[in-house]
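TEACHING EXERCISE
Course module: macromolecular assemblies
Task: Read the component lines below, then compare them to the predicted structure of the full complex.
Student: A.B.
Group: 4
Components provided:
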Amino acid sequence: MSVERPKNIQTRSGPHERLARLRVSLSELGADALLVSHLPNIRYLCGFSGSAGLLLVTGSASTLFTDSRYTFQAREEVTGARARIVKQGLLRAVGDALRGRRSRVAYAASRMSVAEKQSLDAQVGRGIRWVADANLVEKLRAVKDATELATIREAAVVVSDVFRRTLALTKPDISELELAAEIDYGIKRSGGSGPSFETIVASGPRSAWAHARPTRKPLGKSGLVVLDQGAIIRGYCSDMTRTVHVGRASARTKRLYHAVLEAQQAAKHAIRPGVTAGEVDQAARASLRSSKLDRYFTHSTGHGLGLEVHEMPRLGRGEATALEEGMVVTVEPGVYIEGFGGIRIEDDVVVTARGCDDLTTAPRDFLEI
Amino acid sequence: MSVERPKNIQTRSGPHERLARLRVSLSELGADALLVSHLPNIRYLCGFSGSAGLLLVTGSASTLFTDSRYTFQAREEVTGARARIVKQGLLRAVGDALRGRRSRVAYAASRMSVAEKQSLDAQVGRGIRWVADANLVEKLRAVKDATELATIREAAVVVSDVFRRTLALTKPDISELELAAEIDYGIKRSGGSGPSFETIVASGPRSAWAHARPTRKPLGKSGLVVLDQGAIIRGYCSDMTRTVHVGRASARTKRLYHAVLEAQQAAKHAIRPGVTAGEVDQAARASLRSSKLDRYFTHSTGHGLGLEVHEMPRLGRGEATALEEGMVVTVEPGVYIEGFGGIRIEDDVVVTARGCDDLTTAPRDFLEI
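Instructor-supplied answer key:
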C-alpha cells in the first residue's frame, strides 16, 4: 500500500474553476457555447447529481435545465450555474434559450440521440451552428485534482477491505449471487453509496466469461473464482478484480496466474507521464505473449475511472492519448480459456510524476481457499 | 394479496414467436428490416443479456452482433438469432451487412446517438432508407405473457417481503444508507439478481425529494421515511414505494397519507382494458384535487415495467395509449411539500380483463414505527 501522493496535483478545482478552464478550451475550439448532455459531465461542472438535466455553458453564464422532481436537490447541489426548473421538456427549454442567437454551439454527438438532435434542430433556428465538442469535459475530467484523488483512493480502500472480509465467506457452498450480495452489502456498510457496477462473481468454467453475471450456482469444491467489484464514494468509483482458487490449484492454474500478474506488473512499470495509453496496453500484451497467452487476453488493459467507472483514457491497442500526472486508470490484464476458466487481476493506479501509485490495497498473491 | 390470474394471457412467447410477431408489424410499417440497438429490446427478442450488442432483423434472418467478451455468453443465451462475434466495431459490422442492399431499415432515433448514426450512414451506401421504428419492440414488450407475469409477480413479492423485514430495522439511529444497504442485501439474499434501481431511503424533509439518494443521515426520532425499492428476478423488475413514520405522526401527516392512498385507489379503480393511460393519471390527480393537494403531485402516476423499470406505457397527463390486458404498470401518486416532507405509495399491478390485480403484497396501512 502506497501512501505517497502525486506531487504536482491541483489541490481542488471547484465548479467555478472547472467552468473557467472549460471556457478556455471552448474558445480554442472556436465555439461560443457548449451544451452538456452527459450527466457525469454535468455533475463535474456544476455539482448536480440528478438523473435528468442539460447544462448550457456560454461565455458568460451557465444554466442547468432540470425538471420539478429535482427542484430542492438542484437548489442544494448546484454551484457555478443557475438552475432552471422546466415544465415542458428540457430540450424545448434549451431550444428556447438558443433560438434567435447566432452562435457556434459545441455538443457531444455520441451523447445525444438522433431524436433529441432532431428536436433541437427544429427549434433553435438557423443562427446556430453545431460543432463537435471534442470531448472537452471528458478531457478535463481525466486529470483528477487532489480532492478527487483522495475520494477515489477511499473508494479503492473500501473495496479492498470488503474483499479481505469476503475471503472468509468464499466457500464451496455459497452461491455466486450470495457472495455478490455480501460484497455489495459490505460496500454499503463501509460507507459506499453502492457498487460502481454490477458485482461479478464467476466461478469454475464461468470465470472464462469476462463479464459474467453472478448466478445461483454454488462456487463448488474446486475451481477459479473471479471477483470484480467497485465502490462509489461521494460519486467517485473504484474498480478491482481478484481471482482466487477454491481448493488446491493445478500447476497450470498457478502458472497462468503468475503470467497474468507479471503482465499486470509490466503494464504498471510502463505507466508514467508522456507514455501513450496504447504503449501501456502493449506492455501487458507483450508480457503475455512471452508466455504464449496473448491470444487469451480478449479485452483492453484498462480504463480511466472517476465519476464513471469507465472514462478516459482507455488503455487499449493503439490509443494515442499521452498519460498525464493525476490520471487514474485501472490495470487489468486477464486470460480466458473456454472450458477451463479465467483469471483477471485489476488494480486502480494514479499516474505520478515518475510512474504510478497503487490506490488498491488488497493482496495480489495467489490464494487457495 | 390477489392470486387471481389474468385470463386471456398468452402462456409463453419465445424468441421465435416474438420475432414472428415483430416481422408482421415491421411489414405493416413498410420496412424490410429492423436494427435493434436498445439492449432490453435485444434481450426480449433473442435472449442475449450482455452489455454490448446490435440485432439486425430482416424478413428471413436475425443476426446478433456482439464482441469477444461475450463469445461464450452469446453461445449459451441466444435463441432465434445467429450470433456473430465482431472484432472491429459493431456498427462497422452492421454497415458491412447492409452495404449494397436496397431496403427500408427501421431504427429507433431515440436509441441511437448522432455519432453512431453518422458512422452507419457513412458505410451503408445509398440503397438504405432509414425509417422510424415506431417503438415496435417496446409495444410488443408492453403486453406480458404468462411467464413474464409470473416473474414480475415473483419480483414484486420478493420486494414486499424484504420491506416487511426491513420494518424491524427502521429505527431513529439507522442511517438512510445503512437501511438502503439492508434492503439491497435482502433483495439479493431472496434470490434477486439486484435492486432494479438505486434504492431510495429519504427521511424527514428529504422525503420531499422525489428522487433522493440515501445519505449517511440517521432517520431521526420523528418524521416521514420514503422507501422506494425494486428487485430484479431473471431480468424482470419490480418497483414499490412505502412511506412510514418514525415516532408518532401529526394529524396533518395522517391526513396527507390517506389522501395519497385514496388517490392511488382512485387510479387503480380507473384501470381496465380500453381506458387510456392519461385517464388513469387524471383519476389520481382528480382525487388529490378534491383534497387541494394536486399541486404537490409533481410527477406522473405510473409507468410500465418489465425488463426495464421504466417502460411503456407511461401513466402521465394526456397519454393516449389504451391499456390492454397483460400490461404491467406502477401506480404511484405522491405529494411533496418542501420543508415538511413527502409521501408516495406505489404498487405494481397487472391489467386484467375487467380491471387490475395487485402484484405487490406489502401492507399499505399508515405505519408509525
